[in-house]
Specification:
The complex is a heterodimer of chains A (about 110) and B (about 120). Chain A has about 110 residues and is mainly β. Helices cover about 0% and strands about 50% of the residues of chain A. The relative contact order of chain B is 0.33. Classes of the chains: A mainly beta (about 110), B mainly beta (about 120).
Chain lengths: ~110, ~120
């Protein structure tokens, strides 16, 4: 029972480099999310996708782009990484409103920008 | 928009003692409320949630939380903690109105680190 799978788990980037975080879910959920977690700040929403083919900005979208490739996959791209983007990134997906839209998280991707 | 305040960043407690982790929220609309737990180097796992009905909700591992609308609180409690409960706990809120699911993204508090000592 894989749930939400994200890769890579660890990555070190130099300032200005680009990279893509990959995420896939096998629960047939319509909605997917990318959050970042920083010490003392909880989780903040970067982007979300309500359904295949749609994406919307969250609280902290600057410096990121996303692609909802199909119902299963939702990727996050850093075009020109900055030290301020050093963080732990979580992909998540959610079930139906009837069950309270419970959100299920991947195990996280630790990104360091030097 | 909603916001969540977790007043305690760290809560040290001895094993088998009771604990309460505080959570207050702010919202102009009806909300769903959640507690998530994060063990070291792992993702977040749902602990319990309030959607409607009984204001007292329980998890399978002995935690409970009570929705108090007048005080806009959703405090998490456990009568007797174990070493294995050491983790970070996040309170979260989402809009309960009939919306597209994507607009029901969670807003999180800053987290409370529960440290259970022997």
């Amino acid at each position: 029972n894989a749930g939400v799978t994200q890769t890579p788990k660890f990555q070190v980037l130099k300032t200005g480099q680009s990279m893509t975080l990959q995420c896939a879910q096998d629960m047939n959920h319509n909605s997917m999310y990318w959050y970042r977690q920083d010490p003392g700040m909880g989780l903040r929403l970067i982007y979300y996708s309500a359904s295949e083919g749609t994406t919307d900005k969250g609280e902290v979208p600057n410096g990121y782009n996303v692609s909802r490739l199909n119902k299963r996959e939702f990727s996050l791209r850093l075009e020109s990484a900055a030290p301020s983007q050093t963080s732990v990134y979580f992909c998540a997906s959610s079930d139906s409103p009837d069950t309270g839209n419970t959100i299920y998280f991947g195990e996280g991707s630790w990104l360091t920008v030097v | 928009a909603q916001s969540v305040t977790q007043l305690d960043s760290q809560v040290p407690v001895f094993e088998e003692a009771p604990v309460e982790l505080r959570c207050n929220y702010s919202s102009s609309v009806s909300v769903y409320l959640f507690w998530y737990v994060q063990y070291p180097n792992q993702g977040l796992q749902l602990l319990l949630k309030y959607l409607s009905g009984s204001t007292l909700v329980e998890s399978i591992n002995g935690f409970e939380a009570e929705f108090n609308k007048s005080q806009t609180s959703f405090h998490l409690r456990k009568p007797s903690v174990h070493i294995s409960d050491t983790a970070e706990y996040f309170c979260a809120v989402s809009d309960a109105r009939p919306l597209d699911t994507g607009r029901r993204a969670l807003t999180f508090g800053s987290g409370t680190r529960l440290q259970v000592q022997p």
